[in-house]
Amino acid sequence: MDEQFFIDLKDKLFDFLWSIGPTVIKAIVALVLGVLIIRLLKGLLKKFLRKANTELSLRSFVESLTTFILYGLLFAVVGIILGIETTSFIAMFGGAAIAVGLALQGSLANFAGGVLILVFKPFRVGDLIHVNGTLGYVEKIDILYTRLKTFDGRIITMPNGNVANSDVDNRTMNDGRRMDVNILVDLSQDVDEVRTILLKAMSDLPGVLKYPEPDVWLDGIEEYSLKITARSWVKSVDFWPLYWEQLENVKKALDANGIEIALPKREVFYPEGKPSSK
Fold first, then answer.
1. pTM for this structure?
2. Distance CA 46, CA 58 (A)
3. What's the CA gap between 1 and 8, in Å, rounded?
4. Which residues is 136 bridged to in the sheet?
5. 210-243, pLDDT tens digit by residue?
6. Residue range of the domain that includes 188
7. SS3 state at 219
């Protein structure tokens, strides 16, 4: 190859870079400005949602969805600046959307599940729920996933599609919640006496609501015991601490009054009298 070939190649490369240089610079500037504008809009949106006292779950969802839409528009603008025709870009975007949709059917189901959760509100951020075998407080509801924080500090992330299609036990949706304590006492115990002891033990516990009033019932006669059910109402947010205190109060009250917890018993009869100890 002669020297002229490299000179021509260099000139053509220089002309090409010179021709596309301004377009590339415009695209880069648009990209940088777009990112800054998106950050500014996200900050304004957060302030607006906070001042409007929007629910935490809806706030998180709207912020995530808005970020996705804004960045999609930004990439569209950059593509148009680079010379991609609008019709071509729409066709390309549509084809890519179809391909991505087929590849991410689960994610689309999660997105739809997130919308259903926010529309029908089976739970909100801060609620204590039991779903798919997990009990925990709702930390965040995103466009695709819901995060729960368990009592032992674990963070469980669940797809919204699975959550929306599952039975959700919301344990803090109502202000009040009933505590049930089941006790087995000996068959020889007096039911009225046990009822009086348990009612006092439950009523003396701070945090137990006066209405509905605590109640105690004989819930069954078992083979070797009486099944007693003691019930009281507390605020939902105080349920677990008071439940444990309630158990302690009941046990101490029974011990103090000589009420014994039932133990399995069997009577053995010998047809020819008691056997010799020899």
1. 0.57
2. 11
3. 12
4. 129
5. 888 999 999 999 888 899 999 999 999 899 889 9
6. 176-256
7. strand
